[in-house]
Amino acid sequence: MNKNTKESRQLEHISTTICSSSTDGSELVAREISDLIRSRNADEQHAVLGLATGSTPIGVYRELVRLHKDEGLSFKKVLTFNLDEYHGLEPEHPESYAAFMDRHLFSLIDIPADATVVPDGKVPREDVFAYCKAYEERISEAGGIDIQVLGIGRTGHIGFNEPGSGRDSRTRLVHLDSLTRKDAARDFLGEENVPRYAITMGVGTILDARKIILLAWGDSKSEVFAKAVEEPVSDALPASFLQEHKDVRAFADEAAAAELTRKKSPWLVGPVEWTERTTRRSVAWLSSLLGKPILKLLDEDYSEHGLADLLTERGSAYELNIRVFNEVQHTITGWPGGKPNADDSHRPERSEPHPKRVLALAPDPQDGALGLGGTLHRLVDQGHEVTVAYLTSGNLSVPDGEAQKAVDIMLDLDESDSSEKSAFALQVKADLAGREAFGEDSPAIRKLKGLVRRGEARAAMEICGVYSSQIRFLNLPFYENGRFRSFEPREEDIVLFRELLEQIQPHQIYVTGVLSEPTTVQAVCYSCFQKAFELLRGEGWTKDCRCWSYRSDEREWSVEAIDMAVPLSPDELANKVKGIYQHRSQRSQTPVIGRTSLEAWQQAEAADRRLAETYDHLGLAEYEAIEAFSRCNP
Description:
Layout: H1 3-11, E1 15-19, H2 22-42, E2 47-51, H3 58-71, E3 78-82, E4 84-86, H4 97-104, E5 116-117, H5 128-141, E6 147-151, E7 172-175, H6 178-183, E8 197-200, H7 203-207, E9 211-216, H8 222-230, E10 248-253, H9 261-264, H10 276-290, H11 299-304, H12 308-314, H13 317-329, E11 357-362, H14 367-381, E12 385-390, H15 400-413, H16 420-434, H17 443-463, E13 471-473, H18 477-480, H19 491-504, E14 508-511, H20 521-535, E15 546-549, E16 564-568, H21 570-581, H22 600-617, E17 625-632
Parallel strand pairs: 1-10, 2-3, 2-6, 3-5, 6-9, 9-10, 11-12, 11-14, 12-13, 14-15
Antiparallel strand pairs: 4-8, 7-8, 15-17, 16-17
């Protein structure tokens, strides 16, 4: 173990393995679980597992299923206890955790039905206390949990132990945090449908397990994961209590680990390999820390803040400052498609060919306006051939109220009950009225909700200068046949992607999802895009194609990751906001960042302004807002 690793561990109070991908991490965890099971099977003893739900552990469950099918791993002597369940849901409800576990694991392996225990969401309220006590007793009678698998929520919760949960809390009924409910809004077709209560193992119950494994995938978990691993224990961050366990390990992919000190500021914990990106990151960090523009940083500033080695390797502060300042300045361009007939040696995009064929991929219909609404307007104004491809219908995220309004409008426009249009509207109206609480959408409801999103997308793109003839709707099958937190790419998805790429043969592609948690719409779409692009890599146009990654989650790129920064004027920013605002069905539907209650358009506006302020504080030109992109190699 080198010095860097040793000093990182001093900051990290939970032993953390950073994996190259969530797939690799899931395989490591599944192998550890399988080793325990095989060992216990050999001794004719039971293995007791504590299991989690949500998108995070799905990769582990898939690998366990593979080990069962391909390598004969038997679960006949395994007992399982699940962390939690929504109160009020029948086990058969598609969003219940009982159904989740059956769908992703239990029905696919040879575990006995009576060996799987998931909290009963239908236990009467007056019986919950006794039920929870009995749940604890069942765990004790089984000999305790050998391995407890956990994900981490964006509030820092483990199970449904929200901020404020005590270290000694036991299995109980809890009221769900507003952010947790907002995160689940799309699963339940609107926040108003998300149960307000859940039964969960307590923090103390979790800490009783002999071994705990914490998983974190995707950059949406990076900030809270770093806090849980590095910051002092606090009931404001329940996951931090895991630091007190004697045998806990965390597994994170590169995106989720990005905020750990050894990744974000490695010079604070030991020797550093000074790449161009690391150098730029450290200089931007020092500038921010001291509140000085880059060009005003002094040798002693570097030396006094752990960056003396950087000067030794890269020269004096004066020389380093100028070089990094120029690097950051050269990311700025008002010509995202390249400026024709101009020297492009210091521009992020090449000048030729002009015009370029540009393909913007929007996994969710709102993504395009959120991440690059201003840039799309620039590209159109500058004469490029822009195509926006909406990859999914987005119908799963439309609240019933929006569908009801659309139905009423259709019926008002055509009062003839014999018309095909009215028949469809009446069918949707009947389906909405007849659906049980928390029930799934019928095909007719989903079709109408998809049309709602399609209309919003067209309106948003028209404001961005992209008209209907330049828009494609792929309606990828993985989405139409799937559900949130359970998406898997299919061969037919890749075929549709390949056909799109072959038709457009773009010079530029704008994509998102590179850093997303693996089962999200964005991540699955990016995976399909990667596979389709790889199949076409030998074709001539691919050699002249550049891919630009954008953020669609209202976060801004860090300075060192930015390869192209497109400034927006006040009018351009206002125009972008107007475009996002057309996605009316998504108000209060988009998961929030941090604990803000801002709507998506407000979050995007704030992120673009923050990035402009960052560039300003580094000593560069002052802009109203900036959209940024990172080069990627699919």
